[in-house]
Specification:
Layout lengths: L1 H6 L9 H8 L7 E2 L3 E4 L1 E2 L4 H4 L13 E4 L5 E19 L17 H11 L3 E6 L2 E8 L12 E17 L3 E4 L1 E6 L8 E2 L3 E4 L21 E4 L5 E19 L17 H11 L2 E7 L2 E9 L11 E17 L4 E4 L1 E5 L9
Antiparallel strand pairs: 1-10, 2-5, 3-4, 4-9, 5-8, 5-10, 6-7, 6-8, 11-19, 12-14, 13-18, 14-17, 14-19, 15-16, 15-17
Bound molecules: calcium ion (2 copies).
Length: about 350
């Protein structure tokens, strides 16, 4: 018991003057999303001053949340206003820098540090929709790396939800900052960027062709198939061996009900899929079709955590064209084109 008590004596890091301001402030991430509330289970020693949940989102690297496990449960929850596509969760553990501090138990010796890590390790990090777990993004694996210049851990999620929950059943949770990024898709290895993106009609501000390549998952390109021809075209600066095309349909998960009516009911969703499916995806050289990579077959899978489709091309060209001639629309959040060096064939 004595040991446990001592572990919880945290050290103040005293740095004076201007340096303090610079070092204390956590850098803001691209596409960082801010929770509307942060809650935790049992606060250590009921000491809100020292261990408040809010400390993980104050962007101050010297403040932390501290949670005890109580009856086999310790947790910290970040809740968001809407359901989001959560890309990654970045966690700043307490020993982000300058670990050695004679006044703090954990940072006094290597042994102490290891004891603290052991007590505060193995935190599950999951995405939830309300009370329902959608996906575990992994378990926090703190290292004994005292020589590290920081103790920052990134977990990749790629799941939809409105809550991020950190939990464990024994020991404690101690964290300085939890940062959630969403809405922006991950960049692919060997992704190539088009120089021009155009589509048939319409091309309104809300549904602009450029939305298919802006990396934001809550913006989409939409074009109709009036007169039997709908198309969306990505043109590149030169001819590439185009290995694959990855398409993020708008229902990356069913949270996008703020921008469209489709996901608000299952029947609405099905009718949108019916309207948006069967898009041909082809590689062109100029105006000449080289190869069809396949036809987009959207599914009714409302339960899917994502709606991402990959078509294998392995064809040379300077243009990727999405087209359909039947009634309906071409509606996509993102179109990603991948070209590896050389002549790799992707199966
Ligand atoms: Ca903090
Ligand atoms: Ca987009």
């Amino acid at each position: 018991m004595k040991l446990v008590k001592r572990i919880w004596i945290f050290f103040p890091i005293v740095i004076s003057g201007v340096t303090e301001q610079v070092l204390r402030e956590r850098k803001k991430e691209t596409a960082e999303v801010t929770p509307i509330s942060v809650k935790q289970g049992k606060t250590k020693d009921n000491n809100e001053n020292a261990y408040a949940a809010a400390h993980v989102v104050d962007r101050d690297l010297f403040t932390h949340a501290g949670i005890e496990t109580d009856n086999g449960a310790g947790w910290l929850k970040l809740e968001f206003e809407n359901t989001l596509f959560i890309n990654k969760i970045k966690i700043y553990y307490i020993f982000y820098t300058n670990w050695n501090n004679p006044s703090g138990y954990c940072a006094q010796t290597v042994d102490n540090f290891k004891k603290c890590v052991d007590q505060q390790n193995n935190v599950d990090v999951s995405v939830y929709q309300g009370e329902v777990q959608q996906k575990s993004c992994g378990t926090l694996q703190l290292t004994y790396g005292l020589e590290q210049s920081d103790q920052i851990y990134t977990l990749i999620c790629n799941a939809g939800g409105d809550t991020v929950k950190l939990s464990k059943s024994t020991g404690a949770i101690l964290l300085c900052e939890v940062v959630v990024t969403g809405k922006v898709r991950n960049k692919e290895t060997a992704e190539i960027t088009p120089t021009r993106v155009t589509q048939g009609e319409p091309s309104t501000t809300d549904y602009a062709a450029a939305h298919a390549v802006d990396r934001f998952l809550d913006t989409k390109a939409v074009t109709g198939t009036d007169n039997g021809a709908g198309w969306l075209k990505l043109e590149f600066d030169k001819t590439y061996i185009i290995n694959k095309v990855i398409i993020y349909y708008m229902f990356v998960t069913h949270w996008f009900n703020t921008i469209t009516w489709c996901p608000q009911s299952e029947s609405g969703f099905r009718s949108c899929v019916d309207q948006d499916t069967n898009v041909d995806v082809s590689v062109y050289q100029g105006e000449v079709q080289q190869k069809s990579c396949g036809t987009l077959q959207l599914t009714y899978g409302l339960e899917q955590s994502d709606q991402i489709y990959t078509l294998i091309c392995n064809a040379g060209g300077d243009t990727v064209m999405l087209s359909k001639s039947t009634a309906g629309d071409i509606e996509v959040c993102e179109v990603v084109v991948v070209s590896f060096e050389g002549n790799y064939i992707i199966h």
